[in-house]
Amino acid sequence: MIVERKKLNLWERLYLPAIIGGFKVTLRLFFARKVTMQYPEQRWSVPDGYRGAPYLVKDQDGNTKCVSCQLCEFVCPPKAIKIIPPGPAGQLADRPNAEKMPQEFEINMLRCIFCGYCQEVCPEEAIFLLKDWSHIGTNRKEMVYNKEKLLALGGTHGGIQKWRHKQEETVEQENFPVKP
């Protein structure tokens, strides 16, 4: 198939309209309001509904809320979470109802897709998604966050303290037995 091309007239061959159009754009942008942001000092506001990076939180007593149920590890689509539970001697005396505390808890932030499944599935409310989007590391090893780093970034979350409530209920029942 042969495509017929029409001949350009003198005005079109000079490319003057294209040059003038480009100059108009340049002048319009030259006098427009600047949108450059000084990054470390200024940051974009995070919109509502943004799912940030997952972090572990502590309860008000400073204990890790995670009990190594490994639901977050199983539900994670890219397999970014790795939990190593302790052995049978891993139960703590001060929290007898807590099943087990994680020996190791790692999240590979290079693999994480910020889906939020880990937060949804956690029965202990130990994982929360924080609204940060700036993850910086100079190598791959720095982007694998261990338990200590996740707890430091996550902070303390009060919430419901299941173990304390159960202990208080049993103490109350022992002191004031219910008559049948």
Strand content: 5-15%
Shape: elongated
Please mark out the parts with pLDDT under 50 across 5 or more consecutive residues, or reply none: 169-180
Q: What is the ordering of alpha helices and beta strands?
A: HHEHEEHEEHH
Strand order of the largest sheet: 2-3-5
From the 3D coordinates, which CATH architecture of the domain at 53-163 would you assign?
2-Layer Sandwich
Structural class: alpha+beta
Q: What is the strand tally?
A: 5
Folded structure, characterized:
This protein is α+β, with helices and mostly antiparallel strands and 180 residues long. It has a domain at 53-163: Alpha-Beta Plaits (2-Layer Sandwich). Helix content is 28%, strand content 11%. It has six helices and five strands. It has helices at residues 10-13, 16-30, 71-75, 117-121, 147-154, 162-175; strands at residues 53-56, 81-84, 104-108, 127-130, 144-145. The strands form two sheets. A three-stranded antiparallel β-sheet has the order 2-3-5. Strands 1-4 form a two-stranded antiparallel ribbon. Residues 169-180 have low confidence and may be disordered.
